[in-house]
Amino acid sequence: MPVSEKNHSYRIGTISKLAGIPVPTLRVWESRYAAFKPVKTGGQHRMYGEEDLLRATLMKQLCDEGHAISTIANLDIHALSQLHNKHRHGGAFVPRQKQPQSVKMAVIGLALAGRIETKNFSSNLLGCSIEVTNIFADVDAAQIGPFEQPAEILLLKVNTLHEIVMRDIQRITVKNTATKVIVLYNYGREQVAHAMRTAGMLVRREPITDYELAELIRSVLNVDANHSLSEATSSSMIPARKYSDETLARVAGISTNVLCECPRHVAEIIAQLASFEQYSLECLNKSTEDAHLHAYLTSVSGSARALFEHALEKVAQHEGIEL
């Protein structure tokens, strides 16, 4: 697939500044090792993409850790990230009581991944440690492929917030069992951002400084020492729907040994809650005046729907029903 100028918006000077690499060094890495894939504009300017920025950032860290550029220049993003994580977490022994608090994180957005991989950003974490387990170019890519490793935090950057993005993010978190979501965005209606916050996501509009972003991550890590991140945050995210209307209708029509017809009643309640949840979300986008109320109703109905989905699984297991 040919690359487009639209996706390549960085000049080499910008890559140099953001990654902390002198321009002459970048030119050598490109000409001698083909480490980057710039495109030429109509004016013959060489423009670089977000993947080039992320590659430059990771290679800079690895070179500082002792790797020769010739051995890493042609590694893909995943291999570079894994090698970087190995160095970051495989250093000298640290007494248990002094080990930094660590969290596994999946990142959506190549430029964002490059940003948090730098030493300057790590210094803002103040003793906390991030292991980037998965990197995706965008939300669509994250939906297609499962996470190679479980991630406790999902950090992503989107240009525009809308209800479809919110649903996609919920599906990704449910599919990959992420327990906390941090969303950065450029544009979007405030009622949608409010709905996402009500659903348990941390949402901030760009520009946001490295310190502010690190502070958000630290706020997720600052849980009670007696509780895991999963225990502390698992109830804050409202998951997307698990069962379609067709599945619920099938369950409702099954005759069982339960005298009170629990499968039918629970399936019908889930369908009604899901319908009201969708209705509230649509109202959210139609009425600015009532946005907070509809965000609250969306959150309540979604939480109730998720609880009843769990109840349906219990009933189905008892009755031997396949969902």
Could you characterize what this model shows?
- The structure is a single chain.
- The chain is of the alpha/beta class and about 325 residues long.
- The chain folds into three domains: about 1-90, Multidrug-efflux Transporter Regulator, Chain: A, Domain 2, CATH 1.10.1660; about 100-240, Rossmann fold (3-Layer(aba) Sandwich); about 245-320.
- Helices cover about 55% and strands about 15% of the residues.
- It contains 15 helices and seven strands.
- It has helices at about 10-20, 25-35, 50-65, 70, 75-90, 110-115, 120-125, 140-145, 165-175, 190-200, 210-220, 230-235, 245-250, 260-285, 290-320; strands spanning about 40, 45, 100-110, 130-135, 155-160, 180-190, 200-205.
- The strands form two sheets. A five-stranded parallel sheet has the order 4-3-5-6-7, sandwiched between helices. A two-stranded antiparallel ribbon has the order 1-2.
- Strand 6 (about 180-190), helix 10 (about 190-200) and strand 7 form a beta-alpha-beta unit.
- Helix 3 (about 50-65) runs parallel beside helix 6 (about 110-115), helix 10 (about 190-200) packs parallel to helix 15 (about 290-320) and helix 14 (about 260-285) runs antiparallel to helix 15.
- The longest helix has 29 residues, at about 290-320.
What's a concise summary of this model?
The protein has 323 residues and is of the alpha/beta class.
